[in-house]
Amino acid sequence: MEEKAGLKIRIFGDPVLRKKAKPVRKITGDYKDILSEMARLMYDSAGIGLAAPQVGVSEALIVVDIGSGLYKLINPRVAKKEGSQAMEEGCLSVPGVCIKIKRAKNILVEAQDEEGKSIKIEASGLLACVFQHEIDHLKGRLIPDYASFIQRIKINRRLEKFNQKAEDERLSESKTQSCQLQL
């Protein structure tokens, strides 16, 4: 297991965001601590979802809260998809960028909770979108991957300016909340 001390949100360009997350083999207290710290970071950043690679931990852990309760999931996967929807998404690891992304409208997520119990969650609408976004992070996939070639050029320019301005600095709240969904 990777070190949990000093977790912070990683920004586009950090290689950990492109790594495929490893499955968690044995759930320990350390994983519970990481999930709790991820939830704190998500709330502090006004996000509604966060995946472990976004905090530098390349393991299959996510937290999600769209306002109806916190999910802490280990080894989540989408087992079933139906329908489609498109929502504008932002990402805490890709600051200031919003992209309209087409995803399944209804999904079934299979995972383990922090006690190791197998769970199934039927999700639709916003919750389905957030789960799919966070599970994408576990595969090394980011929202710019959904953008057109021209959009990617613009995104890269915007992120280069951001990184030059302040590598470890947090965005102001108005910039952080520029997208409807901050995941």
Set out the fold topology:
Layout: H1 29-44, E1 49-51, E2 61-64, E3 71-82, E4 85-91, E5 94-103, E6 106-112, E7 118-124, H2 125-138, H3 149-165, H4 173-176, E8 181-182
Parallel strand pairs: 4-8
Antiparallel strand pairs: 1-2, 2-3, 3-6, 4-5, 6-7
- The helical percent reads 25-40%
Number of helices: 4
Oligomeric state of the chains?
single chain
Q: Looking at the structure, what is the overall shape?
A: globular
Got a strand count?
A: 8
Number of domains: 1
- What CATH calls the topology is Peptide Deformylase
Radius of gyration: 15 Å
Spans of 5+ residues with little confidence (pLDDT < 50)? Answer: 170-177
Reported CATH architecture: Alpha-Beta Complex
Q: Label the structural class.
A: alpha+beta
State the main characteristics.
alpha+beta, 5-stranded antiparallel beta sheet, Peptide Deformylase, 3-stranded mixed beta sheet, single chain
What does this molecule look like?
The protein has 183 residues and is an alpha+beta fold. The chain has a single domain (15-182), classed as Peptide Deformylase, CATH 3.90.45.10. The protein is 28% helix and 28% strand. The chain is built from 4 helices and 8 strands; from the N terminus they run αβββββββαααβ. The chain has helices spanning 29-44, 125-138, 149-165, 173-176, and strands at residues 49-51, 61-64, 71-82, 85-91, 94-103, 106-112, 118-124, 181-182. It has a 5-stranded antiparallel beta sheet with strand order 1-2-3-6-7. A 3-stranded mixed beta sheet has the order 5-4-8. Strand 2 and strand 3 form a beta hairpin. The longest helix has 17 residues, at 149-165. 35% of the residues are buried.
